[in-house]
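User: Structure tokens for this complex, please. No commentary.
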Amino acid sequence: MGRRVIISGNWKMNKESAGAAELVKGLLADVKNMSAEREMIIFPPAIYLKEVSEMTKGSKIKTGAQNMYFKAEGAFTGENSPKMVKDAGAQYILIGHSERRHVFGETDALINQKVKAAYEFGLLPMLCIGELLEEFKAGKSKDVCKKQLVEGLKDVSADQMKSMVIAYEPVWAIGTGEVATPEIAEDIHKFCREVLTDLYSAEISSIVPILYGGSVKADNAAGLIAKENVDGALVGGACLDAASFMGIAKA
Ligand code: 13P
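Assistant:
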């Protein structure tokens, strides 16, 4: 299969300067042992993004921000702009993470503005989607993912989609230890690919990496990534320790 395989780590609101530097040093020491075909992206807290981007410059590790506002600058207290994310040395931007949606109330409309801002300012978006536990139990996972894709990708062109990354993170699997089975993940990823085919084309759909996130660990990563439509992982808790994250990267 020709798609990129990406192992990414979302640090969330964890680590301070010393811990961030220690984690990055640990990753830099071992990342050469990751398969050459794989890519690694880490998403540190914004306040350490520049430091981490400088440390990883020239290595196989790319960086991204966990969130941003969609405006270039202005009176938006507490927010970071796409230009600032770029200026800090990051290439990627995580958009629509479940915690942004469900803790901070981000809507699909706001998420769509951020996706468009990413392209406008030359950042590569990783759009996160995924259903809540009650939606999963009610058999609505696909409806929810479809809505989040359709609304999140509104007015995004086929050409822009060539650099899109999607992350499917079922909310019930995030931080719970309840990882989706490889079969569940494959079923949803395949469905998302069909949605992308309908929205764009079979060609675009076949290019876009779809990562799985939610309680990924070194011992369950291989089974997930072995699935045809699972193109890597977005890792939370298990990316905070270099050995554990590298275990996933090499799985
Ligand atoms: P965990 O790996 O801790 O379940 O978190 C997943 C996640 O939210 C990554 O963005």
